[in-house]
Amino acid sequence: MRKTTALRAAAAASAALLLATACNSQRGQDDKEAAADGACRGQQTTGITDKTIKLGGIYPLSGPASAYGAISDGVSTYFKHVNEKGGIDGRTVEFVVRDDGYQPPKAVEEARRLVEQEKVFAVFQTLGTPSTAAVWDYLNKRKVPQPFVATGASIWGTDDEHPWTTGWQPNYVAEARIYAKYLQEEKPKAKVAVLYQNDDFGKDLLGGFKEAVAGSGIKVVAEESYEVTDPSVSAQLTSLARSKADVLLDITTPKFGSQALAADAKNTKWNPLHIVNAVSASTTVLKPVGFKNVQGVVSATYFKDPADPQWADDAEMKTYKEALNKYAPDSDPANQLNAYGWAVASSLHKALDAMECPTREGLRDAVRNLKDVKVDMLLPGVTLSTGSDDAFPLETMQLMKFKGERWQLFGEPVDTRKEFGPPTK
Amino acid sequence: MSAVTEVLQQVVEGVGSGAVYASLALALVLIHRFTGIVNFAQGELAMISTYVAWQLVASGMPFWLALPVTLAVSFAGGMLIERLVIRPVQAAPELTTVIVTVGLFIFVNAMAGLIWSFTVKDFPQQFPDGGIDLAGVRVDWSTLGIIAVVAVVMGLLYLLFQHTSIGLMMRAVACNPASARLSGIRVGRVLMLGWGLAATVGAVSGVLVAPVLFLEPNMMGGVLIYAFAAATLGGFDSPVGAVVGGLLVGVAETLAGAYVDVIGADLKVGVPLVIILAVLLVRPQGLFGRAAVERA
Amino acid sequence: MSMNVATLGTDRARRLRAALTALLAVAAVVGAPFYFAPFQVFQLTMVLLYAVALAGLNLLVGFGGQISLGHGAFFAAGAYTAAVMLDRYDTGHLATLPVAAAGCFLLGLGFGVPALRLRGLYLALVTLSFAVFLPPLLKRLEPVTGGSMGLTVDKLQPPAWSGLAEDQWMYFVVLAVATVALLLARNLLRSRVGRALLAVRDNESAAEVMGVRLSLHKTLAFAWSAMFAGVAGCVYTWVIGFVSPDSFSFVLSITLLAGLVVGGLASLYGPLLGAAFVMYVPSVAQDISEAAPGVVFGLLIIAVMFVAPTGLAGLAGRVRGVITPLLTRTKPSAAVRTPESEPPSAPPAPAETAPADAEPVGAPPRTEKE
């Protein structure tokens, strides 16, 4: 009789399971992928018609990295704004956002949902290196474009086996080179202490920096890492202070950026030149520390910080703020992540405009064939450029120094390709 | 700076972190003493209390008025949660309650993000800037302030546990609710009181650490893990243990992270793990805990 | 199985019904990958995979009464074993399974020894700190583990003779692994080991007095349980093809425990239900509220625990407990008397009596019947 119980149990459980799967969604039809005629014959037109285009994005809307979910608000807002103006080349954009909680297996599931069930034209943005790395094999195998991933790891641009995937933001190596160049000019004998986040982001930036200063008079004399689960980085700062370095390179994400800046300000015996990386350079990170404590901090940027008063009268910034207030009234326009979303979405807009064929192949080629494309949310002088072997659209940044209550840009925008050549693996 | 002062400086740093862990560990100990469960949502409740204080201050209320209001709101909120969320599963196995607190954790964290966004907020620092210099070792006023408040809370809890009738009642309730009820204790009220008090102690912790850690919805997530370690090390039913445990964990991981190259800052989280294992193997009830006597 | 003559007739009918149910169940399970879209087959595969891990955790928590918040670490160990073998030594997928299983068994054994000294809460939190410690350790061992970038390895590919698509093949492989694992768990519990575990869980001192070797069985429970988690992790690598330290944060450990409790502790099919919850509910939560899926997910966990304090498996039993007496009034309670018959799953007693396979932890021991 035991058997019956077990059987009944198994039957009940599998019934529940299958029911859940069935209820979860209608049965997808996978085999009907659409193809184009004419000059673009044979190319995939899934997710795109003359009137519509369907895009899917995967962001952490829940879990420990949910702060980055704000990017999806910026992207959605941009598309809603464009739709109201008549869409992209007459096509209305439908943007499907899915949540992966920053977990790779979940990202795989959601990418498959978007491709196989939602039938999106492209997976426009996966966020974070782990999630992107987990899905890019799949997307490339399925020949689905994965343009402008929201992570700056250098692997997206240096890899040649994934033609459907491209980066967007300046990769961490490129950013590290900007700081290296700056130090070589300003403090050629600098001793550098580094605080970095112990993941791909921190390691990539630190590695790029070390590579760029190799052979010069600049030395990395101390490095301390932290985990995103750590409550605070103040102990690391105390350790770094022992090195008596004259430069502190601060490779952190926002909360830890604020902590590091505050801890540095508190320690009156050690006053290094504080370089904070772009991820934490938002005015929203510096303001809680107190403006008087962050004077003279150096960073680099490539898009306009919505919290910075110098862009208050900028036309694009005004459009952005109005649109955000209209379509995402709960979002904070001053949050730099919203502006990031807006900037990356308008970059995609340009790429979509440049497509020769309205197909997935067309987008893949357009994304890799951008020549000095201007995007209004980016800094003046920063443009998008790619090539068949260069999947880094942005490699130009400009240095800035914090003065008074705002960042002041200085020098010319630095094109790291010209200065250092393409990043290597 | 000599090597000795450098080490002392790191010790001060460790004590500072330890005090932060201890402040939340006190709330964990409190709720465990009252109800016998471990509350995963304790840190998040502290975080949301801190947001309440922040909101009050941001809307123009002076801090020293906002603080008591926040504590009162937290107390009421804690009791309400016990009544609405915990009471319905009180009869269920203990693990069910624990998982309910996990659900509460996820809910509260997401709720805070929804209301206040994930942007870092600056929380007003009540202790003066700067610090004192003791033979070359810099001690911030904020570190001293946190330690002082934690010591006071610890003292109050000690008095509550050892020298009041409530302490006796809650010991009876945590030990055996059925017998406690039979001897005339109103178990429901004691449990509500426990949740209210723990939420209040949590609120103190949140308000205390927010100027140092910076306020955002995940502020207490990392602290919670270390507070668990502190309470485990010190013994889950002793406020003194929680504080000693917190300080030990803080100092040990800071020193190991700074001076033992093999460990380094990335693996320093392993140091408390090793200490806890070593201590618990000798004293399974923690440093200051009382061994539970089981009746067969 | 010997048989009581008096119940022969009903028994035959019941057997027939059982066979029919079994047939239907098998048909449904085997047919699923041909009916559902590949993406949904993938989801089912993930459910089965998590169910293996939860079944292992169930051995420890549900039947052993020891709480572990560190099973994500064993899961990670299994996943990394497979990934490293595939990446560095190119061993082929099947070879990784026994290595991951054996490795995690030993790891569990190693953990089981100190775990003997620790009780309840303390054990839970020590295992939790182990789970917290693992990701930085994996990052540190960069030459082997690929550091924080993780490792990308080949997924399991269907052999040409099968004629199946990748997802279908993976589904069947994972189904096979899960079936073996679940049957193994069930048989373990029916064996001496299982009885000893239950006895220990329900009353340690009494069990010891009766001659159960406490330390041996508690350590073994840990080892078996770790092995299941390791197997699940290994299969995870086959299916996802990518591992990174941040995939296995302590949140995974907490999710596993939550999944098990939601599914139903000490129930044979609780792990399946729990795995389905872990897999499907987050996306349901997102469908309900796009702005804050976490709010809905948290509420759903709480709601399930309200409705089914002993887990979803217990809920099914409760419903049955209410309905069955109404349907089968004539059913004699004679079955209870014979040692061979099934445990009284639906006594006409009060509804809150949970069915035998979904007893809350700490319930009085029940007699085992073979």
UniProtKB/TrEMBL annotation, chain A:
<comment type="similarity">
    <text>Belongs to the leucine-binding protein family.</text>
</comment>
<protein>
    <submittedName>
        <fullName>Branched-chain amino acid ABC transporter substrate-binding protein</fullName>
    </submittedName>
</protein>
<dbReference type="Pfam" id="PF13458">
    <property type="entry name" value="Peripla_BP_6"/>
</dbReference>
<dbReference type="InterPro" id="IPR028082">
    <property type="entry name" value="Peripla_BP_I"/>
</dbReference>
<feature type="signal peptide">
    <location>
        <begin position="1"/>
        <end position="25"/>
    </location>
</feature>
<keyword id="KW-0732">Signal</keyword>
<feature type="domain" description="Leucine-binding protein">
    <location>
        <begin position="52"/>
        <end position="403"/>
    </location>
</feature>
<dbReference type="InterPro" id="IPR028081">
    <property type="entry name" value="Leu-bd"/>
</dbReference>
Automatic annotation (TrEMBL), chain C:
<dbReference type="InterPro" id="IPR043428">
    <property type="entry name" value="LivM-like"/>
</dbReference>
<keyword id="KW-0472">Membrane</keyword>
<feature type="transmembrane region" description="Helical">
    <location>
        <begin position="169"/>
        <end position="189"/>
    </location>
</feature>
<feature type="transmembrane region" description="Helical">
    <location>
        <begin position="220"/>
        <end position="243"/>
    </location>
</feature>
<feature type="transmembrane region" description="Helical">
    <location>
        <begin position="249"/>
        <end position="282"/>
    </location>
</feature>
<protein>
    <submittedName>
        <fullName>Branched-chain amino acid ABC transporter permease</fullName>
    </submittedName>
</protein>
<feature type="transmembrane region" description="Helical">
    <location>
        <begin position="41"/>
        <end position="61"/>
    </location>
</feature>
<dbReference type="Pfam" id="PF02653">
    <property type="entry name" value="BPD_transp_2"/>
</dbReference>
<dbReference type="GO" id="GO:0005886">
    <property type="term" value="C:plasma membrane"/>
</dbReference>
<feature type="compositionally biased region" description="Pro residues">
    <location>
        <begin position="341"/>
        <end position="350"/>
    </location>
</feature>
<feature type="transmembrane region" description="Helical">
    <location>
        <begin position="120"/>
        <end position="138"/>
    </location>
</feature>
<dbReference type="GO" id="GO:0015658">
    <property type="term" value="F:branched-chain amino acid transmembrane transporter activity"/>
</dbReference>
<feature type="compositionally biased region" description="Low complexity">
    <location>
        <begin position="351"/>
        <end position="360"/>
    </location>
</feature>
<feature type="transmembrane region" description="Helical">
    <location>
        <begin position="92"/>
        <end position="113"/>
    </location>
</feature>
<feature type="region of interest" description="Disordered">
    <location>
        <begin position="332"/>
        <end position="370"/>
    </location>
</feature>
<keyword id="KW-1003">Cell membrane</keyword>
<dbReference type="InterPro" id="IPR001851">
    <property type="entry name" value="ABC_transp_permease"/>
</dbReference>
<feature type="transmembrane region" description="Helical">
    <location>
        <begin position="68"/>
        <end position="86"/>
    </location>
</feature>
<feature type="transmembrane region" description="Helical">
    <location>
        <begin position="294"/>
        <end position="316"/>
    </location>
</feature>
<keyword id="KW-1133">Transmembrane helix</keyword>
<keyword id="KW-0812">Transmembrane</keyword>
